[in-house]
Amino acid sequence: xxxxxxxxxxxxxxxxxxxxxxxxxxxxxxxxxxxxxxxxxxxxxxxxxxxxxxxxxxxxxxxxxxxxxxxxxxxxxxxxxxxxxxxxxxxxxxxxxxxxxxxxxxxxxxxxxxxxxxxxxxxxxxxxxxxxxxxxxxxxxxxxxxxxxxxxxxxxxxxxxxxxxxxxxxxxxxxxxxxxxxxxxxxxxxxxxxxxxxxxxxxxxxxxxxxxxxxxxxxxxxxxxxxxxxxxxxxxxxxxxxxxxxxxxxxxxxxxxxxxxxxxxxxxxxxxxxxxxxxxxxxxxxxxxxxxxxxxxxxxxxxxxxxxxxxxxxxxxxxxxxxxxxxxxxxxxxxxxxxxxxxxxxxxxxxxxxxxxxxxxxxxxxxxxxxxxxxxxxxxxxxxxxxxxxxxxxxxxxxxxxxxxxxxxxxxxxxxxxxxxxxxxxxxxxxxxxxxxxxxxxxxxxxxxxxxxxxxxxxxxxxxxxxxxxxxxxxxxxxxxxxxxxxxxxxxxxxxxxxxxxxxxxxxxxxxxxxxxxxxxxxxxxxxxxxxxxxxxxxxxxxxxxxxxxxxxxxxxxxxxxxxxxxxxxxxxxxxxxxxxxxxxxxxxxxxxxxxxxxxxxxxxxxxxxxxxxxxxxxxxxxxxxxxxxxxxxxxxxxxx
Amino acid sequence: xxxxxxxxxxxxxxxxxxxxxxxxxxxxxxxxxxxxxxxxxxxxxxxxxxxxxxxxxxxxxxxxxxxxxxxxxxxxxxxxxxxxxxxxxxxxxxxxxxxxxxxxxxxxxxxxxxxxxxxxxxxxxxxxxxxxxxxxxxxxxxxxxxxxxxxxxxxxxxxxxxxxxxxxxxxxxxxxxxxxxxxxxxxxxxxxxxxxxxxxxxxxxxxxxxxxxxxxxxxxxxxxxxxxxxxxxxxxxxxxxxxxxxxxxxxxxxxxxxxxxxxxxxxxxxxxxxxxxxxxxxxxxxxxxxxxxxxxxxxxxxxxxxxxxxxxxxxxxxxxxxxxxxxxxxxxxxxxxxxxxxxxxxxxxxxxxxxxxxxxxxxxxxxxxxxxxxxxxxxxxxxxxxxxxxxxxxxxxxxxxxxxxxxxxxxxxxxxxxxxxxxxxxxxxxxxxxxxxxxxxxxxxxxxxxxxxxxxxxxxxxxxxxxxxxxxxxxxxxxxxxxxxxxxxxxxxxxxxxxxxxxxxxxxxxxxxxxxxxxxxxxxxxxxxxxxxxxxxxxxxxxxxxxxxxxxxxxxxxxxxxxxxx
Lengths: 641, 566
Fold this sequence. Notes:
Oligomer: heterodimer
Largest interface: A-B, 64 and 61 residues
Shape of chain B: elongated
Radius of gyration of chain A: 40 Å
Number of strands of chain B: 19
Structural class of chain A: alpha+beta
């Protein structure tokens, strides 16, 4: 093939260029240390390297999460351990104090220590980490128990069942004083300021509001319940208790008003369903004739004490924001309970100043119930006559059945749990609801009946009792918190508080009696016989009080044991979680090492290899330069003369 | 014996021939590095012999140069044109794809992977402190950064598309320029060759222009000789006549009225002949830099709208019509544009997406009802197989729409500090929703309290259920085909890397082929200095000898004239 000069110059330029390209590539690898600097260098390697990088960043984040979770859980665990120690000490003290050989002085000393322990419990309940209260569920900015005496107007609502009716022994003053057993329901607080409402399902009762110091406070008549405001007790007549115990589905719901709380008392925001009061002194109606209230949802009927400076007295109507059929009168106010927006009628104008108070519903940790509706079902006509609701954990007393056939008898609905023994015989007009599985068994009256609709309430499957979850690994979450209300229960606090107040009363009464005896002894007016009579009566009283004091302490022993069980269970649960975290930490550490190594293998060049290649490439380049220069120079002409 | 001075003539002729050949060699040597030069050779022939009247045979009359020819192989030229087109195509593609893949900015700390990791990590931190404003601000900041990555990438894609668009205009102008020059050369060549000479250097220039043209667009040439001896030279680009001897059809660029792809920037060019017909870029043999640029600018992976006609409704009294299609290949289309059914195009003013996924187009005349039957195929926009800018923009848009949807679905169920609900976290500042106008909602950017962190604002401050639900989007999401959102983007970026690598290796391949053909050409037509040096010596000797001959003849005439006779 004929070779020409231009061929040679072309080709040599090309070869030089190729060499330089290779050199450039190696140089890039050398200076960055990476095999790939753009996706086209190696798309597969790029994909892998991106994935590994993500794994590493995620791993680091998880490690941070684990560390935070660890701290949180350790703080919680420590608080529980301390609480258990305190309960144990209280138990020991109670054992000591319950012995008959104690004088009331000694009991007083023991009581002091118990009071100190109770105050310490407040510290443990309000324990915090990084400025948040760890036992307060989601409301980490609100301490579990009040840190000082607080004024707070609030309505508290409680529900009680048969199991909440307990017996208590009291001393009824009189001549002679005697012991009596009374039945009572204990409310969450003492020093209640007012009763709002009491509903008793299934029975009719009168309610009498009084204090424990009133006469007959512990002896209600049949058909009446005594509401003792100072001690926070509802006293029930013995015969009525029988009635209550045999009424299926018995529930007593009461709401009461309290306006101040003492230091150390549990905060109702955590423990109970509550409706705090809000007072607004001056808020102006905006341009759309509306006012927005901060706290929602608003309790029905709670907007009160409203004065508007144009003097008109408004009628207040409650509805929700989805109500589109509402017609607003000129002197009416529409309250949207869910959004907190008040719409004023045309009698009111922009910039009118409004003064009012209202209550909102404060969230609590009760089980959330969802409403279930089944329609168009049919009762089968062969045994067993049962249909399934499709949901579990049905709420008692929430089932409502409508049959298409109006001639069918009204059913009696019985609720039982899965493990309750079957009740025989099966009345024909009864429907039994298995609250655990959602199965309905019908009496034979309803065989083959067409059901129009069934309404019921069931526990939310995903009910989230304020669990704070952190992600500690891919798709793995861990619950870091425990709810203080489940561990430092209201029952426990009340038990301790009641013990303290009862024994204090007892001790002071004994001191009183001692004082009286002393006075009698020094009294010269009365006859010896009279003195003797009075002193012996007083001494009887003292014995009773002494007895009572000892009894309080001995009851406390059993109660402490119960509470100890609860706290210790909670502490064990945290212990398990902490152990689980340790395992996770180890795995995360291992992963980090593995992934970093893998990333380096994938992305990084072997420096030694690159340097060798560069050196050899440089040599090749030099060689081609020399070759090119030699070839291009000489031609025939150089050799002709 | 011929005339007395016969010998003189022959010698003189010899001198002339030698001198002519030398000057050709001279010419070759000075043009050794001229681009596109083909070496010239003298065709030397013995002149017509005379017959001697004595019957002893013909007497030679010397030599003459009958022609100066160009050494050029037509076959090699056409082979070169073919491979040069592909080489130009892939050369442009490699450079453009390298720029395209670098827009994604991976691997780097400012790329997608880092942005999404940071986003979810900040959400993790927020889940541990949902009530803390500084964590909320940090999370909102990362959300913003994430959105801005897409804004930047989308903006750069748009700029890139515009730049390529301008380059296409430049290329079309180049084509026109070359065409005009070729046409002028045609004129000159035909007038020069009219007198019978070969216009070698002009032809060289013309061939060089054709070479350059073939790089931009696939070119063919045809030279025909007419009956009367004139030659006609035709240049075809992409199979269509471009230069026809002394006339040239030029191209022009026309900005599109209707976008070919919803993702395009406005005003992309269509290439048309100045007479108005479309320049057909869909032909299978289309090559050249132009193809490279068009593929990158318009490439949508055949994802233009197609569908089957399900119903045609004319509105009798007006010119309005309605066409509905089933099985649409995509739902995000332009508000108004063109649809093509059975090779006829109709303009539509609006469209509606029915509940069952069908699309109904409405428009004003011309009315398609007469020509359209049920089951016909409808097409809108162009279908280009390559994965170019529109493809990647579409993927980005798809991603941000799905991502925003996933986040908003959860965020909508949450409540802000002031109790508002049903608020979006990600919003789009305009229609249609694209990666360019994707962003965090203004309300949230201005006030972090508008970021809903809880499903119910009455729950305590540490309720992190909503945030945990947002975090779970990272690991798996039904919307991303049951994979992770990051996998979706990884695939897109890998695709760009793969296509770039492909273009790179094709380019190397094609360049090698071009090199090899070029070498063959040079081997054939190139000037070799050694050869020319040899020729130089050869003709110098010939000249010297001829000159010597002249002196000898001179001596003879001297003797004859001066020294014979008295």
